[in-house]
Specification:
Layout: E1 2-4, E2 9-10, H1 11-19, H2 25-32, H3 42-53, H4 61-68
Antiparallel strand pairs: 1-2
Helix pairs in contact: 1-2, 1-3
């Protein structure tokens, strides 16, 4: 399904960006191009982020600590 008609971004594109590490609306929009023009898609993108983001496990505190030094 097309989520952003201005940039022709699909729900698969949004899910792929989440799988690739996007965790915020700004990160998903930056990765996909969604929301750059009229912005009417941001609510749909946010919904997908909330739904799909739940299935992505959050890093543990030790993973974050070791990654940041």
């Amino acid at each position: 399904m097309i989520v952003c008609h201005c940039e022709v971004v699909s729900d698969r594109d949004v899910r792929r960006s989440i799988d690739d590490g996007a965790r915020t609306l700004a990160q998903v929009c930056g990765a996909t191009g969604a929301g750059r023009n009229c912005g009417s898609c941001v609510f749909s993108v946010k919904r997908l982020l909330c739904q799909h983001g739940r299935s992505v496990s959050a890093p543990s505190l030790t993973e974050v600590a070791s990654a940041t030094g």
